[in-house]
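Let us work through a complete example step by step.
Step 1: write down the sequence.
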Amino acid sequence: MKTSSKKRQAGQAAAEFALVIVFLMMFLLGFIEITALLYTYSVLADSAKEGVRYGVVHGTLSTTCNGPGVAGVPCDGGAAGVKAAVTTYATGSLNNTAGMTVTPTYPDGTSKPSSRVRVVVSYPYQPLFGLGWPTVTVNAASEGRIAF
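Step 2: predict the structure and record it as tokens.
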């Protein structure tokens, strides 16, 4: 019995489609995953900037001083206000802020005007689809000079 060439072409088209659809699905999932990773980095970077903004205006001349301060000026040495500003900003994102680590530092050792404040935010990024992709830690940092 002889098979027609149309049936063989239909079978060949189905096999080609099966090979191409696997490639296209992996490409689409990879694209979505990379987009989600970049979104996470963007949120962390903006959150770090928000923490620096808070630290810049809450130096030793502020009534709600954050950071190490100077002698005679009561300040929040743990910079809880900076951490709260970062967490509050990141809460509006799609990321879980419970896994986020916020580390505010004062490289000059004080929070008086013209000193620096630096905020580093770390987050263990979990891939959306899994698929054997590893968990990566996304870090973002920002630094500024205290104005008040």
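Step 3: interpret the result. DSSP finds two helices and three strands in the chain.
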